[in-house]
Amino acid sequence: MSIQQELNPILSRVPGWENADIQAERISGLTNANYCVTVNGERFVLRVSGRNTKQLGINRDHEVSALKAASAAGIAPELVAYLLPEGHLVTHWVEGRHWEPVEFRTPEHVRLLTEIVQRLHALPPSGAIFSPFRRVESYIEVAHRYEVPLRDGLDSFVKTMKVVEAEQHNDQSDWQCFCHNDLVAVNYLYNETRQSITILDWEFAGWGDIYYDLATIVYTHDNEGPIPSDLEELMLTCYFGEVTNKKRRRLQGMKYMLMLFTGAWGLAQHGMQQAGLIPAVEGFDYLEFAEYLFEHDIRQLQDTITG
What we know:
Blueprint: H1 3-11, E1 22-28, E2 33-39, E3 42-48, H2 60-72, E4 79-83, E5 88-92, H3 101-104, H4 107-120, H5 132-145, H6 154-169, E6 176-179, E7 188-191, E8 196-199, E9 206-209, H7 210-218, H8 229-240, H9 245-274, H10 286-306
Antiparallel strand pairs: 1-2, 2-3, 3-5, 4-5, 6-9, 7-8
Helix pairs in contact: 4-8, 5-9, 6-9, 6-10, 7-9, 9-10
């Protein structure tokens, strides 16, 4: 079966596309499947919602609310259709490209992304609440349910998580606002002509901790590790103006939580895949990915919190 035939039952439900000339091409996706869809010469993106995403804490109604607000603010694609009950999305195509790591790691580009994050932090609540602490607990529970072998030392990582959460609770500054919570490099596009950024994939967006979004800037090219310390300091200065050791410490805690969240996400996805609830992803091993994070990034960041 061709991609076109596979997608026809979905594409035919988009208002106005019933008798259109449509071509579709797969472009990317882990949790979801994304397609570039050309309709009568105009391009769109179809995001086919992954199965069983509620076990990852994803609420499609909250996602759409966030997407609409961000689109109105000029930092997200325009929504064309929201197809229920599955939660498939169609948005307008956005011209742009992903930065390569070396291209991002410049003062001007770190500053530009940080300024966009400041704008999204001014968006209204979507109804969702994002806590990396509760998500980690939930993902570990999912992994346990599907009999994923949990590594030795996991209790130690969770204990360090409690330290980070206590520091968050003791922070009397204004650290809560609407956040994206998944600013990895594939989730935004840079338009060189307009010198602008459009943010994609709002499924984890919700009321949360500003330092978590800042941590994702540090690790936005997660396969390459964090940006250099001088650029991290520039990011903090751009966002806050005045940088204190307490702000640096809070960022360090959320960097740890970002990596712990990602590792726990990998364990949960592996368990769901082994149980036949989600399909395998060609060329990507969830368990191998998670184990690498626990052995390297998470352990190294743990040392900076507890040492």
